[in-house]
Specification:
This protein is an alpha+beta fold. The chain folds into 2 domains: 9-125, Immunoglobulins (Immunoglobulin-like), CATH 2.60.40; 132-230, Immunoglobulins (Immunoglobulin-like, Sandwich). The protein has helices at 79-82, 226-232, 235-287, and strands at residues 20-23, 28-30, 45-51, 59-65, 68-71, 75-77, 89-91, 100-108, 116-125, 132-137, 144-154, 159-164, 167-168, 175-181, 187-196, 201-209, 214-217, 221-223. The strands form 4 sheets. It has a 6-stranded mixed sheet with strand order 1-9-8-3-4-5, with no helix packed on it. Strands 12, 13, 16, 17 and 18 form a 5-stranded antiparallel sheet that branches. A hairpin with a 6-residue loop joins strand 10 (132-137) and strand 11. It binds 2-acetamido-2-deoxy-beta-D-glucopyranose (NAG) (6 copies). Residues 136-137, 140, 146, 176, 192, 194 line the site of one 2-acetamido-2-deoxy-beta-D-glucopyranose (NAG). The chain crosses the membrane at residues 235-257. Keywords: Cell membrane, Disulfide bond, Glycoprotein, Immunoglobulin domain, Membrane, Receptor, Signal, Transmembrane, Transmembrane helix. Residues 1-21 form the signal peptide. Residues 267-288 are annotated as: Disordered.
Amino acid sequence: TVHLLSLTSVCFLISADDCLTAIIGETVQIPCSLKTETSLKTEDILIEWEKDNITAKDITVHSFIKGEDKIKDRTQLFISEVSRGNFSLRLSDVSVADEGEFECIYHINGDNNSKHQAVRCLQVAGRYSVPYVTRSSSASKNSEVNFTCKAAGGYPEPKVHWSVNKELFQESSRVNTRKSKDSKGLYSVTSVLTLTVTGNVSVTCIIENERLEKNETSVEFQYLTQSAKEAGIPLVPVVVVLSAATVLITLVLIIILMKMMKKKKSMTQNASREDDDIQAPLRQGPDN
Ligand SMILES: *[C@@H]1O[C@H](CO)[C@@H](O)[C@H](O)[C@H]1NC(C)=O
Ligand SMILES: *[C@@H]1O[C@H](CO)[C@@H](O)[C@H](O)[C@H]1NC(C)=O
Ligand SMILES: *[C@@H]1O[C@H](CO)[C@@H](O)[C@H](O)[C@H]1NC(C)=O
Ligand SMILES: *[C@@H]1O[C@H](CO)[C@@H](O)[C@H](O)[C@H]1NC(C)=O
Ligand SMILES: *[C@@H]1O[C@H](CO)[C@@H](O)[C@H](O)[C@H]1NC(C)=O
Ligand SMILES: *[C@@H]1O[C@H](CO)[C@@H](O)[C@H](O)[C@H]1NC(C)=O
């Protein structure tokens, strides 16, 4: 029965566009199949899935021999599908290191064409966190304000866009973007936008993942100019000024009151002394 099988081995031309895209942390199914009308005996099938490796020779990530899995880790075949010639591989918990080429090698006992192979290219992608914007410095003498945008945990490297007052900001010389990789190979990005602020501005940061064709957009950051802020949030200075004024007014009142009381006292004293004052010149008068 085996020799009636017609095995078709397909040659794949690999380009990045043909790559399967897997999401980091999720599961991906890498296809590999053989067209067959009849059911295969699993004991007659040998399947090996290999992964390329820069530092070592190809690594066998899965092997299926005589109806049993011999090597497996995060991988799994669809057992009920194998006898139908479907040798697709399920790879779970995808990581950055899984990027590359996967080769499906299979051999059916009794078939003289011996080994067949198919190569599949896998690329991975990870979503960035929603970026957030902070103001990292207040306006200096020349009205320059720095805005900082941060996002993390994505792959591959992102494109950073800023929008100012809802318009895409084009001056790349005013933007300073740094990217770093964590131990899992995921990127963190910090971008600083330096603006010369003359009025109120709203700033938004957009992190673009081209591979996922996905943008993560920060909430709009509102920056109000100094004069606007004084009119808007004067609570603390007003309280300070008010309490200072209260203390001052009370002090002045106390002083005035004390002066008035002194005056009253001295007026009564003066009333008696006035007689002397009047008398004195009168008395002095004749001395001159
Ligand atoms: C496979 O090869 C062997 C020896 O070369 C031959 O005897 C046999 O007929 C071949 N079988 C098929 C299915 O071609
Ligand atoms: C290559 O193989 C080594 C040893 O198994 C492994 O530690 C390393 O992560 C592999 N590198 C890639 C890029 O798959
Ligand atoms: C192989 O099996 C998987 C899992 O059931 C299925 O999703 C896939 O479409 C099958 N491939 C073919 C070529 O039938
Ligand atoms: C603003 O950012 C630029 C570029 O990152 C930096 O050179 C400058 O020192 C920053 N200014 C302030 C006031 O933090
Ligand atoms: C992401 O944002 C950039 C800049 O605004 C834009 O050019 C691009 O088309 C957007 N991509 C998606 C998928 O929305
Ligand atoms: C800035 O915004 C504040 C609060 O929305 C507003 O009161 C003020 O008039 C604005 N200033 C300018 C220059 O637009």
